[in-house]
Design goal:
Helix content: 10-25%
Number of helices: 4
Strand content: 15-25%
Mean pLDDT: 88
CATH class: Mainly Beta
CATH topology: Protocatechuate 3,4-Dioxygenase, subunit A
Structural class: alpha+beta
Distance between the termini: 24 Å
């Protein structure tokens, strides 16, 4: 593959497109999805409903409050191959900026119709998709709110487990968020979802490291 083709893959992947070219391991190494801290609110309350639609809770008739969004993407390894059967463990605050977690003591309300936590898998060609609500900033009415984000833990046997967070483009709190500001411009781009032509629809690709045999 030519040097230009490899650069084309890297550019398209960072832009959130489903690129078809392959990158060399050395070049793609810099394109791994950046890591981020887990945060204090990883779910600890068991729940049966962990499907890809977080806007509804099984057994309840209502729907989650807030703006409903859809995020789709693919999982790649560091050589540009798509990876099927990857487990994506994701959790986030509700539209009010409240986590469904007993240690989140902020005054924002809990949304009983918001699923809050999902565990899904990538399918054919590493594709995944989930529906959720646009997460609120937290803590509510604080001087140092965290910008809206979604937590992701990405794992599969034979690959290095990735813990990261995804962000949203052009949000006014991004430039004030301590964790987001620590990243380079390239890292920020890799951690930020991309808008599509569909309303409230985003693309987000993940690149994970395959463990050498």
């Amino acid at each position: 593959m030519s040097h230009n083709s490899r650069r084309h893959f890297i550019k398209n992947l960072a832009a959130g497109t489903l690129a078809g070219a392959f990158a060399s391991a050395a070049q793609a190494q810099t394109m791994l999805t950046p890591r981020e801290m887990e945060g204090p609110y990883y779910p600890i309350t068991p729940q049966k409903d962990q499907d890809a639609d977080l806007t509804r809770v099984a057994g309840k008739s209502g729907v989650a409050q807030g703006t409903h969004i859809e995020i789709a993407g693919q999982v790649f390894d560091h050589e540009g191959n798509t990876v099927e059967g990857v487990t994506l463990d994701l959790w986030q605050a509700n539209a009010f900026g409240k986590y469904h977690h007993p240690h989140d003591t902020c005054e924002a309300p809990i949304d009983e119709h918001f699923q809050a936590w999902a565990i899904i898998q990538s399918g054919e060609q590493g594709r995944f998709r989930f529906k959720t609500v646009f997460p609120g900033a937290y803590p509510l009415n604080a001087n140092s709110q965290r910008t809206p984000h979604i937590h992701l833990k990405v794992s599969k046997l034979g690959y290095d487990t990735l813990l990261t967070q995804l962000y949203f483009p052009d949000h006014p709190l991004n430039h004030k968020d301590g964790l987001f500001k620590r990243k380079s411009a390239q890292e920020q781009a890799l951690m930020t979802v991309k808008r599509t032509k569909r309303e409230n629809h985003y693309l987000f690709n993940l690149v994970i490291q395959k463990i050498p045999l």
